[in-house]
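Q: Please design a sequence for this.
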């Protein structure tokens, strides 16, 4: 394997389509495409005023999120935090999290490490229901 990999995130498959979440949600996962050995990366977009339909947490993977467009809120366990462009959020593995876009939508990059592969995450549909 080469010492580097380059991929355009917007050219990766949109996983949200397969889950019936498109066009309100866009989710492009780059871990495999980039041949990540120790980490993972994804591009996430929520249309204006859309909340993700599920919360999730991990057994081992820590994640960092960077807002690159728009803003909104994130629920971290029992705390709701406002987000704006260029905010960076670190979330420990056991912390439940779910995102909601504001009126301008929300686009963020998610970075995770270590690379745990499938099965490390727990998803709870409708977790943030207020």
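A: Design:
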């Amino acid at each position: 394997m080469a010492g580097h990999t380059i991929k355009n995130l917007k050219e990766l498959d949109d996983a949200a389509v397969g889950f019936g979440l498109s066009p309100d949600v866009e989710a492009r996962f780059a871990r495999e495409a980039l041949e990540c050995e120790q980490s993972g990366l994804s591009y996430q977009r929520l249309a204006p005023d859309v909340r993700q339909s599920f919360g999730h947490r991990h057994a081992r993977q820590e994640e960092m999120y960077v807002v690159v467009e728009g803003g909104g809120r994130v629920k971290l366990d029992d705390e709701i935090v406002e987000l704006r462009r260029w905010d960076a959020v670190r979330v420990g593995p056991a912390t439940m999290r779910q995102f909601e876009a504001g009126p301008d939508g929300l686009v963020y990059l998610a970075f995770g490490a270590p690379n745990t592969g499938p099965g490390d995450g727990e998803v709870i549909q409708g977790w943030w229901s207020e």
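Q: Thanks. Anything notable?
A: The beta strands are 25-29, 40-46, 54-58, 62-76, 79-84, 88-91, 97-113, 121-125. The chain has a mean pLDDT of 96.
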